[in-house]
Amino acid sequence: MKIIYYSSPFFADCDFPLIGELQRMGHDVRYYISIASGNSR
C-alpha cells in the first residue's frame, strides 16, 4: 500500500516510530513536512 504522510516538524518525534513500523509492514510511505520559509512578504 502507498501512504502519503503529511505532518509538521513539531510531531516528528512521534511520527518516525509510526512511519518505521509502517515500512516494516511493507508499506511504501512518503513523508512530507511543512516548513515555513521565513520570507513572508
Mind explaining what this structure looks like?
It contains 1 helix and 2 strands, in the order βαβ. It is α+β, with helices and mostly antiparallel strands and 41 residues long. Strands 1-2 form a two-stranded parallel ribbon. Helix 1 (12-24) links the parallel strand 1 and strand 2 (28-33). The model has no long low-confidence stretch (mean pLDDT 91).
Short précis:
This protein has one helix at residues 12-24, and strands at residues 2-7, 28-33. With 41 residues, it is of the alpha+beta class.
Helix content: 25-40%
What does the radius of gyration come to? 13 Å
Strand content: 25-35%
How many helices? The count is 1
Summed over residues and divided by their number, the pLDDT gives a mean of: 91
What's the total number of strands? 2
Largest sheet: 2 strands, parallel
Q: Helix-strand pattern, N to C? A: EHE
Q: Termini, distance in Å?
A: 40 Å
User: Which term fits the overall shape?
Assistant: elongated
